[in-house]
Amino acid sequence: MTNSILLKVENLCTYFRLRRPHWFSPVPIVYAVDGVSFEVPKGKTFGLVGESGCGKSTTALSVLRLEEPTSGSVKFDGVDLLSLDPEVMRRQRRRIQIIFQDPYSSLNPRSRAGDIIEAPLKVQNIGTSNEREERVAELLSHVGLRPEHRAAYPHQFSGGQRQRICIARALASGPDLIVCDEPVSALDVAIQAQILNLLLKLQREFGLTYLFISHDMAVVQHMCDEIAVMYLGKIVEQTDRISLFNNPMHPYSKALLSAVPAIDVEANQLAGRLKVAGDPPSPMNPPSGCRFHTRCPYAEARCRSEIPTLREIEPGHSVACHLAGG
Is the model's pTM score more than 0.90? Predict the structure, then answer.
């Protein structure tokens, strides 16, 4: 399996301009994604993790241009997607697909499962009618559904089965990159494991590359090769899975890991679990300096005024914190 870079995101910014409360007030701006950069090698899984509202899903949608970024570049296999006109971008979507968070709202309730899976093939003019029917049957088998399921409607399936249909739809056009936007957060815990293992199985079979979005640290530990921790629109720590879970360096990463329940209470106490108070600030009015300083128990004076850069503290381990690395 090659480690060449399939997706390269550089200084991605996505801002939303809101309606002014009155004529003479400034235009409110939501800084949803503010200068995010990362690379995803072919055949690997890159995870974005953080609290709700940190910008991870907006980053995923911006990569796909389902939300138009404000600035930056998104290079897919060497091609900057943000520079493409709509028709060329439409052809690129054959190679880039998404699995949405909610399998209930992301399926058309009036369409049969087979038609839902076949839809990308029709949109992209792939194959004849018979070839598309064969492809749908093949995809149903790949995701663990039976041929007769193609005639059923979404309301006739369980949540896990619906997400399998979503996965089959994402696979239909033979993509290289699949964005998984919290694909198991709406499912029962027992079903989550089945869907995650299915995604890993399909990745091995088809050499897929995943951009994986989640707020669940246990899920990203199971799925991802490299992980970036986001806070209020920025990446605060980025490294491989083992380094992040064994040696988190940013206080926010430590707090996220401290929030993961553990069975051994004494082990929890010995680990020195880090607690943070309060809610994240509004992305409409982010704090000066380090965006985490309003909740960080270690914050110093410079944290309130100087913006920390994402710098490599150890080989392959980058942290945006003035205090990291001694």
Answer: yes
